[in-house]
Amino acid sequence: MIEITWLPDTLLTELILLCIAFALSAIVGFERQRQLKSAGMRTHAVVGLGAALFTLVSAYGFQNVLGADIVLDPSRIAAQIVSGIGFLGAGVIFVRQNIVNGLTTAASIWVTAAIGMACGAGMPVVAAATTVLYLIAVMALSAISLRIPSADRSVRFSVTYRNHKGALRRILACATELGYQTALTSTRKVEETDTDMIEVSMRFTRPKAGPTDDLVEALSEVEDVLSVSPPDNDD
Questions:
Q1: Same domain? 163 vs 137
Q2: End-to-end distance of the chain based on CA atoms, in angstroms?
Q3: What is the domain-level CATH number for residue 198?
Q4: What average pLDDT does the chain have?
Q5: Which among 142, 79, 139 is positioned nearest to 114, based on CA atoms?
Q6: With CB atoms 3.0 to 4.6 Å apart as the test, which of 74, 116, 134, 192 could cross-link to 48 if both were Cys?
């Protein structure tokens, strides 16, 4: 029979690690929420919290049943988290017109699980450092990638704008003025907010290969355009 210990000596440590995992995971989710992705702050916070709890259970949850014939191996549950989180990440990856979307969001869920596991294993500093490095990867590296010249004259961007305001017409006119040929590859209504917003994936073909800073800057200044960013598979 398992003996229940309501106030174990490690309770305070466990609660602190859970709170740290929740906070760091929510930070990762905030970045995805800001980009209007399908998995936002709530999903990432729950994933990180669950991973931390699984790890804590594997490390501390079976202390009362240990004996001469029972050996504790905390790594077994941690290994199952790594394999199991793949199913959740696969749920946000989808293909439209031979274009893969959701890879960065799936990777962020995977990293969030790792952050939660690190907190549960008593490594909050490493978990915090991973969160900072994640933010650098998705923010700074995305900006740098836009400045790297490409041999392909076609570039794709996800553009989010307010619906029923004539923004799409202004976007097309702006790209045409800069010499780009524009093709609309996909469109979806953003469901995560109360504001009526549309996210479109657009392919811009430029006269010659080179940076796209002028296009990104011009589209960002178009009235009722909320964001211009590379699609997930470009990240």
A1: no
A2: 52
A3: 3.30.70.260
A4: 81
A5: 79
A6: 116
